[in-house]
Amino acid sequence: MTSYTNPDIVGDSPAWMSFIWISFTVSMTLMIIGIYYLPVDWWIRGYLYMGTLFLTASTLTLSKALRDRHEHDRMINRLKSARTEQVLSKYEG
């Protein structure tokens, strides 16, 4: 009889997490500095800062929503597998 086992859960490595945070920090910093030094009026800079803020916030929200959807689908698949395993074990035994 084959029993259902949870796959090993492997998280992201510390090196990958460091790369993500460093990339985010560097890109955001360079964007803010780039906007600051643009030879334009203050209201155009404000518009670009606001756009950068909203784009960053919506990107973070989108990535969280995609991750939540993936976790939901994974949980549903695990539940279906567990139910199938339970039915099979009753049917075999």
TrEMBL record:
Transmembrane segments: 19-40
Keywords: Membrane, Transmembrane, Transmembrane helix
Keyword hit for Transmembrane: yes
Pfam family, one: YiaAB
Domain annotation YiaAB two helix: ranges: 16-68
Record's protein name: YiaA/YiaB family inner membrane protein
Lineage of the organism: Bacteria, Thermotogati, Deinococcota, Deinococci, Deinococcales
Organism: Deinococcus navajonensis
Alphabetized InterPro entries for the sequence: YiaA-like, YiaAB
